[in-house]
Design goal:
The protein starts with 16 loop residues before the first strand and ends with a helix. The protein has a single domain, classed as Alpha-Beta Barrel (TIM Barrel). The longest helix has 14 residues. Helices cover 32% and strands 19% of the residues. Strands 1-9-10-11-8-7-6-5-4-3-2-12-13-14 form a 14-stranded mixed β-sheet.
């Protein structure tokens, strides 16, 4: 992946990673090596069975979704351009299961030709069942991101009554299969969920799930009762590192991710650099271009924070709406996403859209 994005883990950090000097974080060399997006997030539909309080997807059009043939042509083009990571991020993939499954099998076949290819889905997990779980085992995704927002009280406050118990039943099913190793729990940190963060670790640990992705809540509203400040997050991350938030004595082999996105958490990243939470002299980069800092914690627990030193939208990462619009993460927060997008793949080819938008020259000017 290009760097963990707003919508999911993209499979985490690859084992093949090396240290990188800050002076080598040069967008010129990145573009020269990877002139087109390496990480593609796509919306297979624009429907969901939940109405979450913190949902940021502002897409209005529920219909006009791309079909299998259209998606396959798009993915073929991106793979030919060097893309390696593909994430079915929404809106709720399990509501279009046949298409979701068919696309996962498409990637499985493609990986025979491109061994580094990786793919997965992001889901609220409430509609999983034995049939879908068995399908996922056959599709061999690299990751399955499942949203969990704390204990029953906080999770149901965010996602609706009964959502927690339905998810717990499905996590119990998954925990008995080899898919448990592919699960990333995604926890959105906001005012309603923050107090149940330690309990969330206990819950997933009891299921044998060892990977969790913390996502700072993002808003574009002037007033938002879920919002937490950048200073709050920095203080929280410091406490995670020193072990005062998560019990690293009684939990082993956890990998905790804190994700960032250039278009939505830039100021937070800059503050983490200022406070040395992200130490620029201790950066790593993996084979997918992920830049991060890693903390080795007691009992083989790890905390990984992604770092994006330049605008990677369109050069490394891109997002495709269910109806074919190419944009960055922030654009999906707005109802007028078609106007904010750089183009629609039903109207022009991918390369033409990128070149006409002058993405590369804009990035080089940063």
């Amino acid at each position: 992946m290009a760097v963990p994005g707003l919508s999911g883990s993209a499979g985490g950090i690859s084992l093949n990673h090396v240290t990188i000097n800050p002076k080598d974080l040069n967008i010129y060399s990145i573009i020269e090596k990877h002139p087109y997006p390496m990480d593609v997030s796509y919306f297979v539909n624009n429907v969901c069975n939940l109405k979450c309080r913190h949902c940021y997807v502002a897409y209005n059009n529920k219909s006009n979704s791309l079909n299998y043939t259209e998606w396959m042509d798009i993915f073929n083009n991106f793979i030919d351009m060097g893309a390696l990571t593909f994430g079915n991020v929404g809106k709720e993939p399990t509501l279009s299961w046949e298409l979701t499954k068919d696309l996962l099998f498409y990637f499985k076949e493609k990986r025979k030709i491109v061994p580094k290819l990786r793919y997965g889905i992001v889901t609220n997990g409430t509609l999983l069942n034995e049939i879908k779980i068995n399908d996922l085992i056959e599709c061999t995704p690299d990751y399955i991101d499942i949203s969990l927002d704390g204990d029953e009280k906080s999770h149901d406050y965010i996602r609706g009554d009964g959502a927690f118990n339905r998810l717990m039943q499905n996590l119990a099913l998954i925990s008995t299969t080899k898919l448990v190793e592919k699960i990333f729990i995604v926890f959105t940190i906001n005012k309603a969920t923050i107090n149940s963060l330690p309990k969330t670790i206990d819950i997933i640990y009891n299921f044998g799930i060892k990977k969790i992705l913390f996502s700072p809540y993002i808003t574009v509203k002037d007033e938002d009762d879920l919002y937490l400040t950048d200073n709050f997050f920095c203080d929280l991350f410091k406490k995670m590192i020193d072990g005062s938030v998560i019990d690293f004595v009684n939990h082993k082999n956890l990998t905790i991710y804190i994700k960032n996105d250039y278009s939505t958490t830039l100021e937070l990243m800059q503050k983490m650099v200022q406070l040395n939470i992200i130490n620029l002299n201790k950066l790593f980069i993996d084979e997918y271009g992920v830049i991060f800092v890693k903390y080795e914690l007691p009992n083989n627990n790890k905390l990984i924070i992604s770092y994006i030193p330049f605008d990677n939208n369109y050069n490394q990462m891109i997002r495709i709406s269910h109806d074919g619009y190419l944009s960055n993460c922030l654009d999906m927060f707005y109802n007028n996403y078609p106007e904010r997008a750089i183009g629609n793949i039903r109207e022009k080819g991918i390369k033409e859209i990128l070149e006409n938008a002058n993405i590369h020259s804009a990035a080089l000017a940063i």
